[in-house]
Amino acid sequence: MCGIVGYIGNKEAAPILIKGLHQLEYRGYDSAGIALLGSGCNEIKVFKAKGKVANLEEKVDAALSSESQQTSLTTGIGHTRWATHGEPSETNAHPHVSMSGDIALVHNGIIENYKLLKEQLESNGYEFKSHTDTEVLVQLIDYYYQRNGKQLVKAVNQALNKVIGAYAIVVMEKSNSNHLVAARKASPLVIGLSNDNTEFFVGSDATPLVEYTRKVIYLEDEQIADIYIGKDIEITNLDETSADITIKDVDLDISALSKGGYPHFMLKEIFEQPHCIENTMRGRIIMREDGLYEIKLSALTNFKAKLLRARHIIIVACGTSWHAGLIGKQLIEDMCRIRVEVEYASEFRYRNPVIEKDDVVIAISQSGETADTLAAIQLAKQQGALVFGIVNGVGSSIARESDTGIYIHVGPEIGVASTKAFTGQVTVLTMLSLALANAIGTISEEEFQTTCHELTQIPQKMEKVLEQNDTVENLSSMFTYARNFLYLGRGYNYPVALEGALKLKEISYIHAEGYPAAEMKHGPIALVDEEMPIVFLATHHQLYHKIISNMQEVQSRNGRIFAVVTEGDEDVKKISEQVVEVPNTLNCLVPLLSVIPMQMLAYHVAVKKGLNVDMPRNLAKSVTVE
Fold it and tell me: Does residue 304 have a pLDDT over 80?
């Protein structure tokens, strides 16, 4: 949630900040703002706007063009806000400035004890303009700043030691335009460096930085970075001890941050899936000279002994990643004969879960920054479990906290509704299951080779599904009227039904539920009438004929049936109003194909309704706070 950018250097800060905020729009927000400062400037200049970054950009351009500036504004911080405390408004938008005017701050996170701190500050004469927890934090920093000889790093340290909650912050001081201070706890923050320390960049993630530098520092929890032009960055821990600094090269394709001719990022990312899945498998599924396949996963090699003796695996995830985890459960149990539980990370972290030292906890997250999932794996590590991360965000918090893991390598996913990350996660879980089963000996060589071969064919089969995009677009107009949808599937397609329903809810704002098809008679069938669209995932598998029976029950009650079927299926066509065909594949790989029509249907219904597909209301791409 929320986006943070910061810049200090020799260029005008405003254009860099505005561009960075545009690149962070995918994270979700309702208002935006920047604060600017330059050498000789006698005040921090703050600009805020409710709504889109474009509104802020107009306001900044108008103000700066009309001013007779005697100094360049080369230092600044910016923010896109997603409301937590206080409604969306210019007053509540960031940056917030202290009552003294000496300090400005942007913040991502939640300060849980802000009410108590606010009361204490009010008793010391501080007055508040907004309803945010962030204004409390900037006033608290100012309180220590005024009492410690205006030493900003020390003031930030003292304030953060009083704070309970999560934060990523960047702070600037009026008296020094060559200085920024950044800090984080349970919320991501990245610092970019120029080669000669003449420019520094700060971001919630690397997307606003990569145009200017590939050298980054990922701040760790409870670290404070002292950023000063012309000097090396100094990083200290909250206990004031010095922290080690690791500079990494970020590998991010700038072209991936543009729509590439598509009307929306979501559609682009749906169509990128064949290429992305090839990248996920590249160097991992290998055909040997003898024509046989092998799977090479360094994560499995490095922790082979512990993975092989695991008799209990817990998958923790949220949202779409949780649905991928449900497929992972079936894959691992089918192939490896290991007991698997799939837990919502948000519930797991607050229970007292039974975790044994030989257990493996698999954490799945697109961003690698999901707050609940991060907290869940920290709990698991405390109890001695091996933590295995499956993430897309290279260098992310979950990747760094995990003992081992696998990157899905699908590239940046900008659309809020996850598409290619889901299929990337399922592909990684399939490879992991195959490799582990092969090592344990719970899968025959013939089945292993057949499944590996069929997995390598999935990208070209995805292409065939994508060829039906126009068909899905045409039939989607039939469903824009709907207020409710029901998605039904069995076996490996049941999690796909859940994912299809989630996609529709996220971007079209139509209520939808996913159910195991056999559970339809245990309640949902009461909803069926001539106005209820029902999506059946009816590909060929061992329960196919039972799905046909479920469809006939819906047909007899005048329900409107849309089905995803295996190529060449004529039986379902006789029952359904509309069908989309997917190529035949192994049952365990069907979700990689059957999910694509679900993604396309949600996308086209939302577009037909005139909705903002890439930035649906109230949602953020990365949920970095509870």
Answer: no
**Going by DSSP bridges, is the β-strand pair 312-317/339-344 parallel, antiparallel, or unpaired?**
parallel
pLDDT digits (tens, 9 = 90+) for 147-203: 989 999 999 999 999 999 889 999 999 999 999 999 999 888 999 998 888 999 999
List the end-to-end C-alpha distance of the chain, in Å, as a whole number: 10
> Mean pLDDT, the chain, as a whole number?
90
Domains of the chain listed by start with CATH number: 3-252 (3.60.20.10), 258-456 (3.40.50.10490), 473-626 (3.40.50.10490)
Q: Is the peptide bond before 95 cis (omega within 30 degrees of 0)?
A: yes
Dihedral sign, CA of 23, 28, 30, 35? negative
Relative to beta strand 312-317, strand 360-365 is: parallel
Q: What percent of the chain has pLDDT over 90?
A: 65
Strands (E), 101-149: 103-111
List the catalytic residues: 2, 621
Q: Which residue blocks in 93-132 are alpha helix, DSSP H?
A: 114-123
Q: Give whole-number Cα distances, 16 to 29, 33, 109, 580, in Å.
A: 19, 13, 23, 45
Distance of CA 237 to the CA centre of its chain: 27
In whole angstroms, give the CA distance from residue 297 to residue 134: 43
Q: What is d(CA 12, CA 2) in angstroms, rounded to the nearest whole number?
A: 23
Rounded Cα distance between 337 and 341, Å, is 13
If 0-12 CB within 10 Å is exposed, 13-18 middle and 19+ buried, where does residue 290 land? exposed
